[in-house]
Specification:
It is built from twelve helices and five strands. By secondary structure, it is α/β, with parallel strands linked by helices.
């Protein structure tokens, strides 16, 4: 069961969510409730939930700010935002900051809840699979820290999240800088484009898995962040000069 925290200032809304979760037959267990974002952040730190169901508009601290602070602290829980029709733009903004999705408060039913939470469950399962495989990943890349703290922050973020969907915009939002400026500055400070840097990190992880496990090429590609098998093979060959299967055979021959 995935541990779930509800952050919602309206008590009746929290009660409705509890009932829906109980009826939905989904692998999520509600482990706590908070009435505003500030309390929610404290409970995230304390309870370490797998997923947070958060309203957007709340007193003290809103849901989007809660999501931002959680990400800045490196808290990896998934977020699903609760929103009314008039708040849709805020929900879209939350998705840009990494929320897994949103639920429409006024029309939420069992089918809608199941659909949204099945997506979250798939994300959590993938993250868990990745954590179990971490022992095969290089502990760190060869990239030395730069003389620019924000670029170092991006490098650290990529190191922790390279297997996830990372975009230039999401990284620019992370450090609150213009995307084009971030792209140019990153290349200047590291000698590599962001795209090539992320690809190289994924390929390095894939090489370890190919050499040390019997997992399929397709499974390894998805684990390190490539959603498409053909693209994984193409990028791997571009960096290594051989396909993943050829690389695996070479490593077995060496051993």
């Amino acid at each position: 069961m995935w541990r779930t925290l509800i952050v919602e200032d309206e008590q009746h809304a929290r009660a409705s969510l509890r009932k829906l979760f109980a009826k939905a037959d989904i692998p999520f267990e509600i482990v706590g409730e908070a009435a505003d974002g500030e309390e929610g952040l404290r409970m995230i730190r304390e309870l370490q939930p797998d997923v947070v169901i958060s309203d957007i508009f709340m007193p003290v601290m809103d849901g989007v700010r809660l999501l931002q602070l959680a990400r800045e602290e490196g808290l990896e829980c998934r977020f699903v935002m609760l929103t009314a029709v008039s708040e849709f733009e805020y929900a879209r903004q939350a998705v840009e900051y990494g929320a897994s999705g949103y639920l429409m408060k006024l029309s939420l039913d069992l089918a809608g809840l199941r659909q949204a939470m099945e997506k979250v469950a798939a994300e959590l399962a993938r993250m868990e699979k990745l954590r179990k495989a971490d022992k095969w990943f290089p502990e760190k890349t060869a990239q030395e820290p730069t003389d620019h703290p924000e670029m170092n922050r991006i490098i650290a973020y990529i190191e922790e999240h390279f297997a996830e969907d990372i975009t230039l915009k999401s990284l620019a939002d992370l450090i609150r800088m213009d995307a084009s400026y971030v792209s140019d500055l990153f290349k200047k400070k590291t000698g590599s484009t962001l795209t090539h840097y992320i690809q190289n990190r994924r390929v390095a992880a894939a090489k370890m898995l190919l050499a040390e496990t019997e997992r399929t090429v397709s499974d390894i590609g998805r684990t390190v962040g490539f959603e498409n098998d053909n693209y994984f093979i193409k990028i791997f060959k571009r960096w290594c000069g051989v396909t993943p299967n050829e690389y695996r055979k070479e490593q077995k021959f060496v051993l």
